[in-house]
Design brief:
The chain has 127 residues and is an alpha+beta fold. It has one domain: Alpha-Beta Complex (Sufe protein. Chain: A). It is built from five helices and three strands. The longest helix is centred in the C-terminal third of the chain and has 27 residues. The protein is globular. The N and C termini lie far apart (45 Å).
Amino acid sequence: MDQSDAARRATAFPDIEGTQGRMNDPDGAAIIKGICGDTMEMYLAISGGRIEDARYATDGCGSSHACGAVAAGLARGRELREALRISPAEVLDALGCDPAVEVHCAILAVMTLHKALAEYIIRFEES
């Protein structure tokens, strides 16, 4: 599966509508530059221990966009502990991707999501 296939599959995933783009005043945010050179950003709006909105931005390839969109879509509506269980495998399964081709993009998206969650937890829940 090439990058354009991954991007096409992501558009079929039901929870990605409105996941692309930056967020003003997020409750949690993170930016990570992957080993491939792509940068992934993740922004979270959290209320009552639940992720109300999740958005991503990337300067990367179609696969990075697809994985970022699916990771953000999977996070929406989940409680924080549930969102911490999102894995690269879950993102790849949702996309129906070949792990050999897309795994680094899924890892980057999930790492960025988890870092944004950690930033929120450290700022608001541990103080």
